Fold this protein.
Amino acid sequence: MALRELASLEKYLGLKKPNKYSTQGDKKVPVLQNNNGPPLVGQVTIACHLVKEAKRAELLGDGAEGRAVVQQWLEYKVTKLDCCCKEDIKTILKDLNLYLQDKVYLAGNQFTVADTLMYYGIHPLIVDLAIQEKEQYVNVTRWFDHIQHYPGVRHHLPPVVVLRNRIYTGRLH
Amino acid sequence: MKLFLSEGNPHCLKALAALQVTGVQCGVHYVNHEERVVPFLSRPAVPALLLPSGLHLFSPNAICRYFFEVNGQESSELCNQWLEWEATDLQPALLQGLYLAVLQGKGSEVSNLLQGHLNVLEQSLSKGGTPYITGDAVSVADVVLWAALYPVLSESLLALGEHSSLKSWFDRVAAMHSCQSAAQKVLQGKGLQGMKSYMQRQPVPQSSQSRDAQPCNSN
């Protein structure tokens, strides 16, 4: 999974030559053989390396604050999303929904690599949501729909239908 | 800018040590374990840093990284790699170890649980031949890893007999006054007992050995 996500990130970044990856350990942690030094291990580490290689440093966030926020969501993706069990899903969606209430992207107003990886990580959760649940997490689905239509991001993942008009309005009355 | 900490929470040691090592100006507020500092998270998350922009950082490693960057030390690729390893690999094992030691009185099992991780660190330190993990100067990776290991290493739950490079590194970081005083403030010199009330409020960690429930995102 992590390897396919990195391959999609490479395509998004427009890197000409696809890298070859291996994995290590039971958890299949991605490893990138690096010509300029020791191999790089871990999805977040490799993703940030690819962004720099593509000379797209702006995708790592703006200023010390922006960069810390981006790193936080990248860490969230690999620690919380990638190994979440059923009980965690509702909490994750609820928290993200509240967080995204007043934001266009995870780092605020700027699209970053955190949006890309979080989108890959949350895709399996969104696919499983019923329409009514999608409306319950309306900020998450809005963000998700925005990112899946962001030019060049979706790649290995099928599109998920997100309705823009509410069907279930019962709770509001 | 405000840093929220709670006493007896081992994750807070990272944030306070990083703040003191870098000397960044930031107000420190102590709250209780239940306090919901980060408005969008359902579970209390401390340490938390309220940034000047009004955004919150709730990941201890992101907080440490931010302090170092404000101080002019941007995290290198090697640093990134250690921080990711700490969060994804070391932390789950550590939490399980602390759970066993603090709440179940099974401190003797911690050693087995963490042996592999200690070997990784020992190998890297002895091969690298530098006093700190990523080179000749203290980096965010040193502070994060030291603070993560402090609760188990300072309580002698683990013998570092065969890990001589790791032991010298640990003692070297521990000798820094800013780290010493952070440990004293967060853990109050009460050792494992001091963490009890925090650990009791945490969900039972998933055992890596008996993982019967498959994570939903595994393939």
Observations:
- The longest helix of chain B spans residues 77-103.
- Chain B touches chain A through 36 residues (CB under 8 Å).
- Residues 126 and 165 of chain B are 6 Å apart (CA to CA).
- Confidence is low (pLDDT under 50) at residues 208-219 of chain B.
